[in-house]
Amino acid sequence: MSTQPTDKKPTHRRSKALAMERVTLTHEHTHLGKKHPPGAELSVHPATARWLRDAGVVSPTTTTNKD
Hints:
This protein is of the alpha+beta class. About 15% of the residues lie in helices and about 25% in strands. It contains 1 helix and 5 strands; from the N terminus they run ββββαβ.
């Protein structure tokens, strides 16, 4: 096994972070340990937004944050 440094770059790379989605609650919901009332807007991961929509906790439309 060689201990000499190589010019190779690591093969693992972080994937680009997915854009967070902004959702509007239709029912009270606890997010990150805090209760939020209906009408509150949250920024969540796309998979979480999908889950919340399927559960009927947020409005069916979302917007993508451009942070």
